[in-house]
Every structure is written in structure tokens, then in C-alpha cells.
Amino acid sequence: MAVVLGIDLGTSSVKAMLLDTKEGPLAVRAKGYGVDIPAPGFAQQAPEVWWASLKEVLGGLQEVRPKEYGAVAAVGYSGQMHGLVLADAAGTAVRPAIIWLDQRSKRQMEEIYRKMTEEEMGAVFCNRVSSGFAFPSLLWVKEEEPEALEKAAYLFCPKDYLRMKMIGQAGTEVVDASSTCMFSTPDRDWAWNIIERFGLPRKLFPTVGEPLQIAGTVTRACARETGLPEGIPVIYGSGDQPAQSIGNGVCREGWLVSNIGTGGQISAFVQDPVYDKKLRTNTYCHAAPGGYTMLGATLCAGKSMGWAKDELFHLEGYGQINEEAALAPAGAEGLVYLPYLAGERTPHMDPDAQGMFFGIRLGQGRGHFLRAVMEGVTYSLRDCLEVMQEAGIDAQTVIASGGGASSGLWLQMQADILQKPVRACMVKEQACLGACILAGVGTGLLSSLQEGCERFVRLDSRVYEPDVGKFGVYEEGYRTFRELYQRTKGLRACLNIHS
Questions:
Q1: Predicted structure pTM score
Q2: 498 has pLDDT over 60
Q3: Catalytic residue from among 102, 240, 276, 416
Q4: What are the Cα distances from residue 212, in Å, to 76, 262, 345?
Q5: Is 276 an active-site residue?
């Protein structure tokens, strides 16, 4: 028996999975936390909270599986992408991490667009620079908190901080590095000419490894804090999107993943660094050797449902949401929701985009609003899919993942709106599973990513087929959804002037 540990640092929780390389997943534990919003447009988290939460999660695994926990032979990582962590030489964060939801760097974005053309961004980054990415966030720190930048010895993406706490060495890997927009994605190395052009200290940029490489081993100090065996190898790991795709069995071309987590994405594995020439999607390095991932992203997917649950209707759980939303008809009788609560990426790339409900009438109840939120998020995923299709990326079947995949109603809705068969992965923590598979392959306990996917990924036998009877109402809803953004864009600018 060989046991590996996979850790996924998400936006709302950290999770960890123990996996037996013969038997499959043994146990999963999670610990939730919040996002700090100290001012409108700000979104940050304390790295110390991540580490404390991880130790609590690992303690839970040790409690339920003491023998297997003591036999862990390798550790793999997955984590939220784009965020900026600044740490001093001792590995202590010098300020809260600025995460992907953050929109504070509008002025810095203007500076970037003065000094770089979109063509150069595409050629170097394969991405448009957006608020919430580490590049503009770092420029914001440079301008607004120079004392923090002076204290910093390294910059990381979020999961890299946890790995450093575990192995005592600084570093990042190509997936997360390519999500910072300070990285040459085709070359799989830091974009040193861009870094120098913007006057950013070279000392901050750590060694970049490939996801399957061993980054170091568990230190004695970490072993004391976590109970993990000292000296076991820890691989670099991956940003959560490729890790999640591996956990869904997607590590080759020809598959699409629809993820509804805090944010939402439609993603695909590609062999080459293909990107949308209008820069409406994102292309990052993939965890599979030499590969890339192309994705369209919506910022507030599950976040929209959480907002509706907690702020609008004060519901206790998601079961009630599904029950009430199912009572409303497809199309929610003309009620349409735009999920732009924190700006939007694909296809608008607009940090100022705003959410709305449109078409409110007497006779509509709470179920209509809840269904409209689900449909609006799924319309946004269709926006992502259509841009991907323009770039020549498509597939016959969609693998659904994230919290949205636990709702049969939402799975059917995805099939109807995306107009493709949808299947769900039976392992609910796909990013953790992906991190486990990466750890196994990186340390030779598994022969390949393909073997890991075939052995441990199990898709639900049920296939949610598109209901052609609903195509008409959803086509009308989707047209309205798309028109709403365009038709209210000018009004929003007018309101901003007078606010």
C-alpha cells in the first residue's frame, strides 16, 4: 500500500484527501474561511489563516485514518490561482494576500495598458491582464504600500505559501506562474523583460518548477506541527484549474470541463498555447507535461448562489434552493439574472460590470429568483463556451464539476443551455484528487496521469441529455442575457459619473 496526500487551497475552504494508490480515496476533510473585504472592490485573505486551517484539516485526517496518515509517502498541491502573496525571507507574509476576486488595481491596469499592447499581452502572456491577477496587484502594492514591498523577499501564488511552510523552500510552478501575467506562457519562464520594464524587483520572483517535479521534502518543523512523516517528498503541484481537470479525468484533448465553484469556468486541455486573439479567454500552462489549458471564466458562479442564499433570502442550505428553484418553470417566466457581482471576465473582461435582475413581475416568487440565478450563471458559462468554439475548441460531452455538480437541477440546466450531454464526476473533490494523482505520478507511485485518471476517476453513469423542448425558452433567455449587458453599459457609466 502507498498513500498520497492531496491538498487543495480554495477561496472558501482548504481541503485535503488521503488516497491509497491501489484502493482509491480514503478520506477527505475541509475547513472553511471567509474573504476579507476591507473596502469596496478589495478582496484579500490572511495566509496565516490558510496554514492554521490546513493544520486543522490534517489533524482531522490523522484522527480518522491514523495508520494511513502515518504512511503518507508523497504530498501534492492544488490551489486558487492569480492571487498575490508577499513573504519575507523567513517565510512570513508581510501583508494579506490579494486574491483573484480583487478589483482595487484599476489605476495600475491603466498603466499596464499604456505600456503594453494587447498584441504583446497575447504573444507573451496568452492572456489579457485583468484586475485580481498578481501583476496589477503587485503594482498596487508598489505604489500604495511600498513598505510592504520593501520587506518582501518572495512573491507566491496562494498554494505556494502552504508548500513553503511544509518544505521550508520558496518556489512556484508553471501553472500558477502563468496565471500571474508576469510569465511567458509559451516559454514557461518569467517574462523578465516585462518585469524590468515595470520596475519590479527581480529578487521577488522565485524558482519555477514543473508541476510533477519534487519541490522539497517535509521538514522536521512541519512534521512536528502536522504529524506528517519527516522527509517525504512534496511536488510543486498545480493551480486548481488543471488539477481539477485531472480529477475529472481530463488530461488529453477532446473533453470539456464545466466547473461551478466560487467562480465558474469552461476549460479544455490543449497541446499548444492556443489563445483567443481578442483575449476574452485565458490560456495557462497545464499540469500535464508540456500541455496547456484554455478556459473561459465567470467570476461569481457559486458565489452568486451563496449571495442569494445568505443575503437575499437567508436560507439554511442548498437543498431548499434546489427544491424551490425546481418549482419555477424553465426561463423563470422572463426573469433574467446577470451574475456580474464583482465585474466579469469572459467575454467582457470588464472589472466594472454589474449584476442585475431584469423582468421582475407580480406572481414571481423566491423560486423564480433562485432559478434565475442558476440560469444566469449557466448563460455566462455558455458565453465562455461560444468564445472557446470560435477558437476551435469544442467537445461532444461536458464533464461537470464543483459544487454545482451536486445539483441534478443545475446539471440538467447546463445540458439544456450548453446544448451538450453533461456527466458528473462521482468523486466530489476533484481538485484534491488531481493533487493526489500529481503526487503519485511525480514520485513514481503512479506511472502516468492517464493511469491515475483511469484508475481513480469515476463518472456518474447518468448522462444529462439536452431537453430539446426547452431550447426555445433558453435561446430567448440567452439573447436577453447578452443584450442586457450591452444595453445597460452606457447607463452604468452615467450612474458612475453621478454617484
A1: 0.88
A2: no
A3: 240
A4: 9, 26, 29
A5: no
